[in-house]
Design brief:
80 residues; alpha+beta; NE0471 N-terminal domain-like; three-stranded antiparallel sheet
Length: 80
């Protein structure tokens, strides 16, 4: 199972990710910042509170989260 092992918030709503199989890369989530759960992430200070939970899922304090497999695919797309 693919899990995120580390995440870092960068400017312009980019996440720098490392996965448990060694894959690393950056993903922009600017296009996902809408709706009740993701709207607060438009605040860069809040966006920077991103972390990885015990299950390898990228999440924020308001319980917004992003699936590891979707992020993995996005990183792979940027590599090709």
């Amino acid at each position: 199972m693919i899990k995120v092992i580390s995440v870092e918030a960068k400017s312009n709503y980019v996440l720098s990710l490392a996965f448990n199989d060694g894959l690393r890369g950056d993903v922009s989530i600017a296009d996902r910042l809408f709706g009740e759960m993701f709207e607060p992430l438009k605040n860069q200070k809040y966006f920077s509170q991103v972390k990885v939970d015990d299950y390898g899922v990228v999440c924020w304090p308001n319980e917004a989260d992003l699936a590891s497999d979707v992020l993995y695919k996005k990183v792979l797309e940027t590599k090709h």
